[in-house]
Structures are given as C-alpha cells and as structure tokens.
Amino acid sequence: MESKFLISHDDDIKNSRFNLLLSAYLFLAVIAFGTIGYIVLEDWNFVDSLYMTVVTVSTVGFGEVHPLSPVGRLFTVFLIIFGVGVVAYGIANLAESLFQRQMSFFSPFLKQARTIAKMENHIIICGYGKMGRATIEALLDDDFYNVVLVEKSQAKIDLIDPAHKVPHIVGDATLEHVLQQAGITKARSLVATLDTDADNLFLVLTARSMNSSLKIIARSESDVNRTKFIQAGATKTVSPYAAGAQRVFSLLTASGMNDLTEAIQSDKKVKFKVDTLEIEDGDQFAGKTFAAARLREVLGGLVVAIRRADGSMMFTPQSSTVMHPGDNLYIMKFSERS
C-alpha cells in the first residue's frame, strides 16, 4: 500500500508539471491571439495591441487604449471570457504545483508515521549511541522483530545505514508525546540507552506510567543505580562495563561456551533464541512430565531450565520432571534464516 502511495505521489508531481507547462503555453497563446486580433480588427500597432490584450486578460480595468469598434468590443468580450479562464487555470495549476512540492518534502515523514502507527508488539530503542546502535543491528538481523528508534539528535539519525530503513522519530524520548508517537501503548519492549543514568531513569518512569505491561531494559552506567532503575519500573538493567568484564572472565575461564556462542553468531544461516513459556492452570502441560508432554516435538526446542513458582531454578530438567502451574520454561530454539 505504501509503495502504491509513493508511485501515485510521483505521478501527481509529473502531472502537475505538465499542467503548469500547459498553462504557460495557453497563456502565451492567448496573448498572441489577442495581440494579432487587435492588429487585424482595429488596425492598431503592435505595442497598443499587446498592451490592450494584457490589460484585458489581467482584468486590471485601465480602460481602452483607443475607442473600439463593435467588432472590436465583441472580440474583447470573447478575449475576457477565454483569457480569464486560462489565467484561472494557470493559477490553479501553480497552486497545485506548490502543494505537490510541499508534499514531496513531507511524504517520507508521513509514510514513516503511518508505518509506526500500524506497528504492534514492536521494540522501541531510545538513544542511538554505541549500545543503541549495536542493539538495533542485532535486532534487525532477526526479521521477527519490528524496531522503532527514538533519538533527539538529527546528526545521529543521519548515521543510520539507509539499507536498514529503521523507522525513527526525532525527539526527546523522556517526553510522553514522543513515546506516544513511537506507539508505546502497543509495544512489547523498550530499551533505554540514553547518554546518562538520570535520563534513562526518567525515561523508565515515564514509560512505565504509560504501559504497565511493557518490558523495559535500561542501560546503567553504575551498578549502584541498579536498584533505583528496578524501583522506577525497569524489568532488567544492563551495565556495559559489567557485561564487558563478564565477557573477559568467560573468555578466560569458559572457552568451550564462548567457542559455541561465536560459532552461532558467525553462522548467518542459523537463528538462535531462548523463549519462555508460563504454565497456567488448565494448561495442556500442567501436571504432565516432559516425556508425556513431548515438549521437544510440540515446542520445537529444548527446555534448558525451569523457574518454579517459588522462584527456584531447575536446570537440565529430566524426562520425568513434572510441570506445575506457575512454572516458567526456558526453551532454546535453533532455526534457519529465511
């Protein structure tokens, strides 16, 4: 639908240019016709005939250059009707051309606004710094996710790879009306990666007040602020320094796990993700063992852990493990990229 809109808009611009050019030709034709008519019918010179034609067509009402004969007056009546019609047609086409030029400037913004308005269950990334950029690139690598970027700096927006075609909003992510434009009430998650902890904390407070079920991941410069973010409404916090330190530690102590992770990330044909499934009362899996439920066949993945209703974790559950209401299953899935 959007591509049809753009094609239609381009056609409108071409038609507008054609009509404007046609108006110019018709106006010149009227001037030439009137000038020749006065020369032939009234035997006036070229300058007087041209002047009388322009005055008549423009309807300024300066009066006759010379007294007109009856035939000349009839000719003038015809020239007024025809000439005023041509001038009105030209003015209308000029106005349309100016309108189309304005539309050609605003149409990308209108298209983007419509795209965002139609989104549901999407992810809002607030801030296009190093972490925000890396998050977007990782999400775009998986076609399953729809992403909207909110960034107040146009200079940073201009750094986006045009091939990514990321829907974006230029504005302050801490403002309610900006988050509303990003579709926060219909979003599944929000990632707060603004420049400072203070900005991210205020963003978390605002976002949580607008969508109580939203999953919010907040970037925190300091581990000291983690509790404040959780109290403000963040679901999880991420510290780039702590994550970097943990990565270095794992490289030093768990080379096998890192080799596997890097192999998965480098293979562009394979998608890897971990989903969660909550067991509810009356669920088809409630009260059943893993073997009886045939989870691997039904879910298309491997259950690597269970979080029990009391918060305790069970890793590598066995085929005899029974699932209960309130349990959360962590399912590891591999699939080929389309």
Descriptive account of the structure:
This protein is of the alpha/beta class and 338 residues long. The protein has helices at residues 2-42, 46-58, 70-118, 130-140, 154-157, 176-181, 197-210, 226-232, 240-253, 255-266, 290-293, 295-299; strands spanning 123-126, 147-151, 168-170, 189-192, 215-219, 236-238, 270-278, 302-307, 313-315, 328-336. Strands 3-2-1-4-5-6 form a six-stranded parallel beta sheet, with helices on both faces. It has a four-stranded antiparallel beta sheet with strand order 7-10-8-9. Helix 1 (2-42) crosses helix 2 (46-58) and helix 1 (2-42) packs antiparallel against helix 3. Mean pLDDT is 80; it is low at 1-9.
